[in-house]
């Protein structure tokens, strides 16, 4: 894939694949990014241990072994954004842990990372991206909808203090 650069008045950033050696850096980006959501909803490691705000390096390491394609948003060598894609078969990719550090938000980098993932899925021969979000996070749900994702349902899990909302983006559906 050609080099992907996001530019705005805040500066430019490059999106590129991450290596296993960078795990500690991007794990920190994930935890710090999702900490704002955990704080907003009052979740702790005890009340919601599976939330990305509390993800361990070991858990991320296991995801790499599962065929996780991980990408970082960089300013120079500083990672400030993250997203991952997992091929779940049939041209469908699950996108997860889309994260931008709080101080880098609202400059268009999240959308650039999302557009990068759409282009990557297309390059890999895929035609759909699925995501799971905190259903009660209406700001996030609306942001994904504004970026071409369609809400497809919800599910409650007894071990989570929130409802999981499911959304998808389809290459075949032009909006």
Briefly summarize what is shown.
The protein is an alpha+beta fold and 175 residues long. The mean pLDDT is 90. 30% of the residues lie in helices and 36% in strands.
Number of helical regions: 4
Q: What is the name of the CATH topology?
A: Aminopeptidase
Mean of all residue-level pLDDT scores: 90
Instruction: Please state the second-level CATH architecture.
Output: 3-Layer(aba) Sandwich
Query: Biggest sheet, in brief?
Result: 8 strands, mixed
How many independent structural domains?
1
Q: Strand sequence of the main sheet, in spatial order?
A: 1-2-3-4-5-6-8-7
**Could you tell me the number of beta strands?**
8
**Amount of beta strand:** 35-45%
CATH superfamily, please? Gcn5-related N-acetyltransferase (GNAT)
Can you describe this structure?
The chain has 175 residues and is of the alpha+beta class. It has one domain (4-127): Gcn5-related N-acetyltransferase (GNAT) (Aminopeptidase), CATH 3.40.630.30. The protein is 30% helix and 36% strand. An 8-stranded mixed beta sheet has the order 1-2-3-4-5-6-8-7. The longest helix is centred in the N-terminal third of the chain and has 19 residues, at 23-41. The radius of gyration is 15 Å and the shape is globular.
């Amino acid at each position: 894939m050609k080099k992907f650069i996001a530019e705005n008045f805040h500066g430019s950033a490059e999106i590129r694949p991450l290596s296993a050696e960078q795990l500690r850096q991007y794990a920190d980006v994930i935890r710090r990014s999702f900490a704002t959501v955990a704080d907003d909803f009052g979740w702790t490691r005890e009340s919601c241990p599976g939330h990305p705000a509390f993800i361990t390096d070991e858990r991320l390491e296991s995801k790499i072994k599962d065929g996780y394609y991980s990408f970082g948003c960089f300013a120079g060598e500083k990672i400030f954004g993250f997203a991952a894609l997992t091929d779940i078969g049939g041209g469908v990719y699950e996108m997860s842990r889309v994260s931008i550090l709080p101080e880098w938000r609202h400059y268009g980098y999240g959308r650039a990372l999302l557009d990068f993932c759409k282009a990557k899925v297309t390059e890999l021969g895929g035609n759909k991206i699925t995501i799971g979000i905190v259903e009660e996070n209406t700001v996030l749900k609306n942001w994904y909808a504004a970026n071409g994702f369609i809400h497809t349902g919800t599910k409650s899990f007894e071990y989570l203090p929130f409802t999981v909302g499911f959304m998808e983006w389809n290459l075949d559906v032009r909006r």
